[in-house]
Amino acid sequence: MSNNNLDPHNTTPTNLESFTRDEKYMLRCIQIAKNGLGTTAPNPMVGAVIVFNDLIIGEGFTSAFGGAHAEVNAINSVKDISLLKSATLYVTLEPCSHYGKTPPCADLIVKMGIPKIVIGLKDPHEKVAGNGIKKLEQAGCSVHVGILKNECEEHHKRFLTFYTKKRPYIILKWAETADGFIAPEATIRGEKKKPYWITNKRSRQLVHKWRSEESGILVGTNTVLADNPQLNIRDWTGKPPTRIIIDRTLKIPSEFHVFDGKQKTIICTEVEDTNQFIGDINYKVLNFENLLPHQLCSLLYEEQIQSIIIEGGCKTLEGFIESNLWDEARIFKGATTFKKGIKAPKIQGVIKEQVQISTDQLTIFKP
Fold it and tell me: Is the terminal CB of the chain with fewer CB neighbours within 10 Å at N or C?
């Protein structure tokens, strides 16, 4: 892969000859669905394509949460709606069958008379779970399910993990030096609390892009105390993630960036004295004597946070690794060396991808 590609996940097959016609249109659904990444949650980022006589006459993806679903946007994009009665709708996920922020998509599909629907995946959400397919079939539609199933599962991994495992999709991320350190010893740092960079600017920009794609970002106390991070997306555009900070005894000073009020922040603590709480920050009291990663997963599920990127520190990362609570690990190896400091976590998994980003190497693991 070229090191000029800023996003190692933004890959589209170049050899389409081996794909069937239905698969090619489903690939297009997945491609356009990515436009909703980071904005649709808790709704899934669905893509939809409408085809008439082997020509795409409409397409759409899920709007930001509260807006129209992909099927609605695709139907609304068709200039001659009379063609819908002879068209095929392709969609990455089963059309919804219930009222939420918007009316059921299955009802609209039936109303518009679309005779054939090709679906990537059945929706695991309890309010859908096959009911959308059933409604379409009862209306006389021809429904085909499971086209590019694996690719659609990968695309919808956040949504599927959230509703099947009752926890967010968990991405571990860290940068380590060429000699295997995640942070330098305290004597190397200056007096001002700020991040000590291991990676280059291109890698750091990519991390900000990743942050814009996830619902939450999680760090431990020591990372905040050492780096005073902002945990925002200042090097990218988009919606900043909810900050989740582990601060068992409320050590973090109130003047630190995480209390700036610029994005939603949750502090996880064992302190129950509300007089120690700051402003509009959302505090959650946990039992630190029990398995913390499991408690955090339950909390984030309750908070409707479908995905998180965990950026440190070592203790926090290792807690999730030891609990086997992770779905992906994105590890940068920089060219610098520390010789002394905090050793990077150890992880065992399958290498799915390796990308060279200028002087840095990015390795992506799956369990």
Answer: N
Which among 287, 283, 303 has a CA at the least distance from the CA of 295? 287
Question: Could you give the CA distance from residue 110 to residue 154 in angstroms, rounded to a whole number?
Answer: 28
Q: Which two tokens stand for residue 42?
A: 């808790």
Distance CA 107, CA 122 (A): 17
Q: Greatest CA span in the chain, whole angstroms?
A: 72
SS3 94: coil
Distance between CA atoms of residues 240 and 262, nearest Å: 9
71 is catalytic: yes
Q: Which helix (H) or strand (E) holds 116?
A: strand 116-121
What's the pLDDT tens digit per position in 276-329?
A: 999 889 999 999 999 999 999 999 999 999 999 999 889 999 999 999 999 999
Q: For the whole prediction, is pTM greater than 0.85?
A: yes
Placement of tokens 């973090």 in the chain: 252
Helices (H) and strands (E) counted in the chain, each on its own, are 10, 16
Tokens of 220: 């431990």
Looking up tokens 């939603």 gives 264
Token pair, residue 276, equals: 């120690």
CA distance 197 to 210: 17
Task: Determine the residue type at 201.
Answer: K
Distance CA(132)–CA(128), nearest Å, equals 6
Phi, psi of 213 (to 5 degrees): -95, -15
Phi, psi of 332 (to 5 degrees): -90, 140
Cβ pair 121, 58 in contact under 8 A: no
CA neighbor of 363 nearest in space, from 199, 168, 153, 185? 199
In b/e form, how buried is each residue of 266-277, taking b as 16+ CB within 10 angstroms? bbbbeeeeeeee
The CA distances from residue 183 to 195, 204, 277, 340, 359, in Å, are: 9, 16, 29, 9, 18
Which is the catalytic residue, given 59, 71, 151, 176?
71
Output 31-37 pairs: Cβ under 8 A, ≥24 positions apart.
Answer: 32/59, 32/60, 32/61, 33/61, 33/62, 33/70, 33/92, 33/155, 34/10, 34/61, 34/155, 35/61, 36/61, 36/62, 36/63, 36/64, 36/70, 37/213
